Every structure is written in structure tokens, then in C-alpha cells.
Amino acid sequence: MKLIDTHCHLTLEHFDNEREELIKELSEKFEFLFEVGIDLKSSKKTIELSKKVKNIYCSVGIHPTETENLKHDDYDEIEKLIENKKVIAIGEIGLDFHWDTDKKDQYIGFEKQLYIANKNNIPIIMHIRDAYTEAIDFLKTHNIPEMGGVVHCYSSDRKNAKKFLDMGLYLGFDGPITYPKNQELREVLKYTPIDKILPETDSPFLPPVPYRGKRNNPLYIQYVYEKISEIKQIDIEPLKEILFLNAKKLFKV
Question: Would the pTM count as exceeding 0.90?
């Protein structure tokens, strides 16, 4: 059983100098990877990449910090992109109050894309940063797609983790679970049922130890697997099978 990475951004400029070489290596070592959209332009690029590479699937969506001054037509275009067979989710969508962007527009973007996901019966990939309470309150009053979804790069506490898990959502874990000071996050990982965990890199961001401070890439997912294996006390090979089946169940790949 090979590896999977359920959240990366290979179409970003960070990989311009070696994208083809890296993708060739990834194609040999991974069962599949999910290339995730962050705005309309990148969503189109994710589809283009997925069409070229058999084991790359993609999501389309508008990141919360990219929702300012968008028009209804922009969301209509996102919905049209779902028609491509390699699109497995709407995302990444959600709330991010870390950066100084219009919160009203973020809520509008979140609501519109949840509606699209529900209408088209497709899972969601959520980005939440410094807005966990607000996101939970929002989801309580809006329909989560029947297909479910994942809280990408989970970074809150056990209490909030339980609330998302009770909603039937998965939690994505990335390089930060390897950081020495992130014991609370490792406790969340320990608490989360193994059948609700997804492995991610968020490449080119959030590289794991020992690559912290450098550009991340999906090859480093092995360090995420190793930490999950250590904390959940499951050998790597059976863990690969479990995480593969988790992703397959949620995203129907």
C-alpha cells in the first residue's frame, strides 16, 4: 500500500522550477493526492493538473481570505467546475479571522459554497483559522452536506474536535503534529477515532520536523504517518490501509 496526501497545492508558484519532476516521483510513490483550490484561478489549475496525472484528484473552491468583492457569477463558475469527473470536493472553504479580511464576505462565501456542496451532493474541505467557535456556530445553523467533509489542518483543542466529530466530520492532520510544542494537538490526534483521521501536508506550507522552515512537499507526508503511527500505536502498513480507506469513503475516489 502506497501513501496518500489529501491536501496539497502543487499548482502554486513555489513548485514552478521542479513541478514535472516532483509529480513524476509522486506518481510512483502515492496511491493518490488531492490538489486543493483556493480561488477561481487556482481551481481551474487544479483541474488541469488532475487531467494530466492519473492519481491526482482535485477540489474547487474559494478560500475565506479570497472572498472579498466576489460576484454571484464567481460562485456560479465554481459550481460549473464540479462537472469535471476528477473534482472530489468543494474547498477549501470556511472562516479565517487571522488575516485582516472582510468577515461579512467570508460568511457569504462560506454559505454560498455550502449551498453548492449540498445542491451537488459533494463533500467539503474546510479551512478554519482563529475562528473555530464562529465556524461551529455557523455550521449549527447551516446544512452540512450529506457526503460530509473534513476540517483541514485541524489546530484547535479537544473540546472543539468533539463538536466537529459529533457532526460526522473528519479531521485533517499535517506537519504541526510533529512540532515539539504542539502536545495539545497530539492529544487531539490521540482522542480522534482512527476512522476519522486524514493525512495532509498542505504543501508547500507547514513542513514537518525535520524540514521545518523549508518548503514542504507531499513526499514529507511520511513524517505525518510516522507521528500518527506513534500516537495511535498502529504499525505503518496497516495505518496506510486505514487512512486510504478513510479518504476513499469520504471522497469516493
Answer: yes
Q: What is the pLDDT of residues 50-83, one digit of tens each?
A: 999 999 999 999 999 999 989 999 999 999 999 9
The CA distance from 106 to 59, in Å, is 19
Q: Is 98 annotated as a binding residue?
A: no
Which pLDDT value is given to residue 68?
A: 94
Q: How many CB atoms are located within 10 Å of the residue 121 CB?
A: 10
Query: 142: annotated binding-site residue?
Result: no
Structure-derived torsion over alpha carbons of residues 152, 158, 163, 167, reported in degrees to the nearest 10: 50
Report, as an integer, the average pLDDT of 195-199: 98
How does 12-51 read in b/e, with b if 16+ C-beta sit within 10 Å? bebbeeeeeebbeebeeebbbbbbbbbbbebbbbbbebbe
Q: Is 152 annotated as a binding residue?
A: yes
Kindly state the cell numbers that stand for 125: 474541505
What is the set of domains in the chain, with CATH numbers? Answer: 3-251 (3.20.20.140)
pLDDT band for 1, please (50, 70, 90 cuts): confident
Name residues whose C-beta falls within 8 Å of residue 242's C-beta, 6 or more positions apart in sequence.
194, 195, 234
Say whether 31 counts as a known binding-site residue.
no
Residue 7 annotated as binding site: yes
* Residues contacting 143, CB < 8 A, separation 6+: 114, 118
Phi, psi of 238 (to 5 degrees): -65, -30
Percent of the chain scored above 70 by pLDDT? 100
Residue 92, annotated as binding a ligand: yes
